[in-house]
Amino acid sequence: MVRIVVRDENHEEARARTQEIASLLREYGDERVQVNGPMPCTITRIANFYRFAIEMLCPSPKPMQDAMQAIRAKGMLKSDSQVAIDVDPLWLM
After folding, report:
1. Which of 13, 18, 36, 80 has CB atoms 3.0–4.6 Å from 8's, for a disulfide?
2. Are β-strands 34-46 and 2-8 bridged in parallel, bridged antiparallel, or unpaired?
3. How many separate domains does the chain show?
């Protein structure tokens, strides 16, 4: 499982960026990769930042890695102060 959390001070910007990432993951992932989201995080707002999440599930990690690598090559998926990528998350809050 991979969990991607996008945060932004603007609600619509956070939602739109998360939607764009989810669409690209669906486009570049194969049929084994299940992309859930975007969805609001359980705690939707922290320190004036709105938060949306995407969850990727797959029996094997390789297809998820390939999809994320393809999106990263486009400059859309980099772990920074706005995007957090958590592989095998222990906590889904």
Report:
1. 13
2. unpaired
3. 1
Distance between CA atoms of 76 and 39, rounded to whole angstroms? 18
pLDDT of 81 reads 82
Sheet containing 83-87: which strands, arranged edge to edge? 34-46, 49-57, 2-8, 83-87
User: Does residue 41 sit within a domain?
Assistant: yes
pTM: 0.90
As a whole number of angstroms, the distance between CA 45 and CA 93 comes to 11
Residue 50 maps to a domain: yes
CATH of residue 54:
3.30.70.600
Range of the domain at 40: 2-87
Residue 93, domain member (yes or no): no
Number of continuous H segments (helices) and E segments (strands) in the chain:
2, 4
State the Cα–Cα distance between residues 28 and 69, nearest whole angstrom. 9
Query: Which residue in this structure is represented by tokens 């999809």?
Result: 67
